[in-house]
Design goal:
Blueprint lengths: L1 H5 L28 H8 L2 H7 E6 L4 E3 L4 E9 L5 E5 L5 E5 L2 E2 L14 E5 L4 E8 L2 E3 L5 E3 L3 E9 L10 E9 L1 H12 L1
Parallel strand pairs: 2-12
Antiparallel strand pairs: 1-3, 3-8, 4-7, 5-6, 5-11, 9-10, 11-12
Length: 190
């Protein structure tokens, strides 16, 4: 880069396109707008909540007992402008299994009572990948395995009435004994 400036390659006969030195006291043109501040001041809360969608998905709907269950949470701003949502705490979104937050019956994290904020650029899509190990935490060091059955994995933004505002989604998965899962899979391939 230094060679370019030393070679005078940027200097032309017409000075309009030559990089100019900043003159003190002269205002520079505004290069960007703070979209988050603009969203806070101009976009009504009801529109902010409708602009963001949440979707929870799993690769399959059936898993063998003991196999981890991967899931993806996708959040998307459908508006052509930035959106900022106020959350109950700095932890901006949560997930749960059968209504048990983080699949833990004990609180290991105690977020502060101060509100947080979750920001989306215009048209931005955020994806988070998690995995449920088919167990529920019952103490700091003890886990209880989940048995066969149907379980609901849900995720949503950490706002009041996330379900009512459309900022929550869930997906159902079935946990089957390993023998049944293998029998079903071999029957499908035959």
């Amino acid at each position: 880069m230094r060679r370019i400036y030393e070679s005078e390659a940027l200097h032309r006969d017409d000075d309009r396109f030559t990089p100019a030195e900043r003159r003190s006291g002269e205002l520079q043109a505004m290069r960007s707008v703070n979209g988050t501040a603009l969203s806070r001041r101009l976009v009504p809360y009801w529109l902010r909540h409708r602009a963001v969608s949440v979707e929870v998905s799993t690769p399959r709907t059936e898993y063998a007992l003991g196999d981890p269950v991967p899931f993806r949470v996708t959040m998307r701003n459908s508006m052509p402008f930035p959106i900022a949502l106020r959350t109950r705490s700095p932890r901006v979104w949560t997930w749960s299994v059968y209504g048990v937050t983080d699949a833990s019956r004990v609180s290991l994290r105690d977020p502060p009572d101060e509100p947080g904020e979750f920001r989306f650029d215009r048209g931005e899509r955020k994806r988070f990948t998690k995995r449920w190990e088919q167990a529920f935490r019952v103490s700091a060091s003890e886990w209880e395995r989940a048995g066969p059955g149907e379980f609901t994995i849900g995720a949503g933004l950490n706002v009041d009435d996330a379900k009512g505002k459309g900022l929550y989604d869930e997906v159902a998965v079935r946990i089957v004994p390993k023998d049944c899962g293998r029998a079903d899979r071999t029957a499908e391939t035959a």
